[in-house]
Amino acid sequence: MMNVSLIGNHEAKTNKELPEKSGVNQVFLACYLIILLILTVYQDFPLVNIIGEIGRSPIILLFPLFIFCEIAMLSKYKKLMNVTKLQKYLFAFIIYLSFISMVYILIQFLQGNYSFASENLLGKAIKVLTYFVVILLYVRHMQLVFTRINSFKLLYSCFLVVMSLLVIIMIVELVSMPNALTFLHSGSHPYWRVRLLTSESSTTGSIIVVYSSILIYLSQYLNPVAKTLSIVYATSFFLFCLFVTGSKGFLIVILLTLVVTMIKFLNFRKKRNFIVLIAVVVAMYLFIAYFSAGLFSSFSNDIENYTSSYTRMGTIIIALATVFHHPLGVGTGAYLMYFNEYVAYSIQLMSRFYYNVFGMSQINVGELLQYSGSVKNLGVKSGFFQWVMFGGVFSIVFFYLLAKDLIIKVKSNSILFLSLVFILLSLLFVALEIKYEVWLLFAFISFFLGKNEVNQSNMSGVNQ
Fold first, then answer.
1. How far does Cα 45 stand from its chain's mean position?
2. If DSSP codes are grouped into helix, strand and coil, which group holds residue 178?
3. How far is CA 79 from CA 83, 204, 284, 406, 456, in A?
4. Which H or E run includes 232?
5. Which of 315, 301, 295, 194 is nearest to 254 (CA)?
6. 120-151: buried (b, 16+ CB within 10 Å) or exposed (e) per residue?
7. pTM for the full model?
8. What tens digit of pLDDT does each residue of 217-263 get?
């Protein structure tokens, strides 16, 4: 059955009979969307070796195209089209970051600090702000493409093709480890986990969840047999990735997602809620029984060798210390100075923590010390806390409004609700700047499940 809110959104698009789009035009749009969806998950593009981290995703190459489309649309309609709350929040956030960045760069300039290591502070601020501008344009462009495709089944086919490609890539990786598809990655070093087209396995979880959930959501427009086969296919893909992944963050976020789902369905007045709750409890039991030993072993290894968990916690402490002293954030340029300033504090706090909790008097701080005086990979190993370091309290407000708006939209759809909860929790573990599948999910929810939110009276919409 068609989602009620989706019907409302479609009806709000236009009260006039829409012109029939040509089959050739639709095929072209479908092929273009497939390319966009593939580029979205490609997050270890070799261009990073030439222009830096912003080149780790090929989406940056589409920046001129995004600008061209914006100019063309503005020229045609004389106003901005497809404006959603998601876009408004992003735009306001970019304006604030630009302002606070200039303020803190001015403060550093007045103190005689114009650069950190080899990085000019003003240049760094502009480069980081570029990430945010590209994200906003990506969201607008994806929603523009959505308006031009007139069939949910065609939209479903695009996601099916891309998911099938991901399945093929995963199979190739499994049979050719540790040197799988190295020509597609920024480095040729061996890698022993499934990472698809990303740099490491910890970044694949969100891709799997987003594409699987959207495919299942779109399968509601198929006949019963095709819908069942689609759900089985997407679920099998997700479960297989779950069992072969070596990412602790992915497993932890899944467990937390199940907990949140259990809380949501605690109301037994509905028979459906009771069934879902039983299913979640069983899933949690099986999850803990199967994965707990591996997780504990992995965390023990981290404690002994002070690897990823230690570094992640240390950089989060740096972000919290920065915001404690600078509640409004420090912007996208001067953060280099403050990050370096609080490295020693973070190491000291972590040392006390490990001594009090684990009885370890000596710890290996080499990985965190690498950040001191260097700009290479300098940042918080958490998208949420990195953005909070940039924008302080305003960032927290941004995430709150964003999450609230999206949760309201998906509360009536279980699969997208689960996917959204997973992604929101993932923000604690993964960087956000090139995780375009996150913004793909947000754009999809904002566009298709929003009610009378999009101003596109002159634009075409999606039919069954």
1. 17
2. coil
3. 10, 38, 49, 25, 10
4. helix 224-244
5. 295
6. ebbebbebbbebbbbbbbbbbbbbbbbbbbbe
7. 0.86
8. 999 999 999 999 999 999 999 888 877 776 667 777 887 887 777 77
